[in-house]
Design goal:
The structure is a single chain. It is built from 15 helices and no strands. By secondary structure, it is mostly helical.
């Protein structure tokens, strides 16, 4: 069971996230940059950036990138890997707003079926691509719409509930997504599959940032600058071996995310209307913050469908982004950490990274 959980929930989701970064995420950033350049006046540089970003963020391209990345994570043979491009494109287009989940499920099945027949016949160059392509596209035609509808319905429910009860849902979304970020699962892929944008997306960014910045600051005495950068700009997942040894070290970070989440939704009303994948990234390469900024100037299609519109951010938006993403997680987790060290729940060395 552990083998399959790792293969399909950890490895495949991680691969899917990489495919999203290399296509949709980069494409959205480049396109937004081009649009900002064009605001200065028509010029070939801005037009080129917009075109490049548009190509990269096309649904078919994104689907192909995700499926190939999933196949690569599953160590699929070359012919299977290359054939997954069409499977991913079909799934993402037919799956609609919840297409990424359809890509994940169907790409795994098509990859495994293609791998089963790979190298088994003398005409492998025909059989393997045919099995991968036909099985994948057939499943896309039959199931992608319904898988996508289920995913988007769950995402819509979370977004609706967050808009209706921003305080309670701010806590729930922030804590859960932050926890998932630190677990060996891709929070970015999950957020994108669910299409988390708006206030819910903002709460997700808050929770992820709380885990990354929180662990980076709280463990500074053990890990110094290397740990600060590797966790604050890399991933809080590095703390998982320590969490397994002493789960209490997670509490200061979780408490911080429970505070910054509702501050994001209720006080600053921060909306993450960039690519949903950014909602699950936190401060990793500042992707969560970049996604929020690009969403201000150029909301993505999912956000526009939920009523989002381009804005010119003011002092409150910028102040909220900085406080929720960096300052509050660091200060709150440091204070909670001091308290827990004082009562003996966290001891010196409990947060020491092996890599450090």
């Amino acid at each position: 069971m552990n083998k399959y959980v790792k293969r399909y929930l950890i490895d495949a989701l991680g691969g899917m996230a990489h495919g999203l970064f290399a296509s949709l995420l980069v494409g959205t950033i480049v396109k937004t940059l081009g649009q900002l350049i064009l605001k200065l006046g028509e010029n070939p540089v801005g037009t080129f950036f917009v075109d490049a970003g548009t190509f990269a963020s096309d649904a078919a391209v994104v689907g192909a990138a995700m499926a190939i990345a999933i196949g690569y994570a599953l160590k699929a043979p070359k012919l299977v890997l290359f054939s997954l491009a069409a499977v991913g494109a079909a799934c993402n287009k037919l799956g609609g707003a919840g297409g990424p989940l359809a890509v994940l499920v169907i790409a795994i099945i098509a990859s495994e079926l293609g791998t089963l027949v790979s190298g088994k016949t003398k005409v492998d160059i025909l059989v393997t691509p045919l099995v991968t392509l036909i099985s994948g596209v057939l499943l896309a035609v039959l199931c992608a719409k319904w898988i996508g509808l289920a995913a988007s319905s769950v995402g819509d429910l979370i977004i609706w509930a967050t808009n209706l009860h921003p305080f309670v849902m701010g806590i729930i979304v922030s804590v859960i997504v932050g926890v998932v970020l630190t677990l060996p699962i891709s929070s970015a892929a999950i957020c994108h599959a669910l299409g988390l944008v708006g206030l819910a997306g903002g709460a997700a960014v808050a929770g992820c940032s709380a885990n990354m910045i929180g662990f980076a600051i709280m463990s500074f005495r053990e890990n110094k600058w290397g740990g600060l950068l590797s966790q604050g700009l890399g991933t809080s997942m590095l703390q998982m071996p320590n969490i397994i040894k002493n789960p209490r070290i997670w509490l200061p970070v979780i408490l911080s995310s429970a505070i910054t989440g509702p501050i994001s939704t209720c006080v600053f009303k921060l909306e993450m209307n960039g690519a949903p994948v950014s909602s699950g990234m936190g401060t990793c390469g500042f992707v969560g913050q970049i996604g929020m900024i690009t969403g201000w100037y150029s909301p993505v299609e999912q956000a526009v469908a939920k009523g989002a519109a381009a804005i010119t951010p003011g002092v409150m938006e910028w102040l909220g982004l900085i406080l929720v993403s960096f300052i509050l997680p660091g200060v709150l987790t440091w204070l909670f950490g001091l308290l827990f060290r004082k009562i003996g729940w966290i001891k010196d060395g409990d947060l020491k990274l092996i890599e450090s």
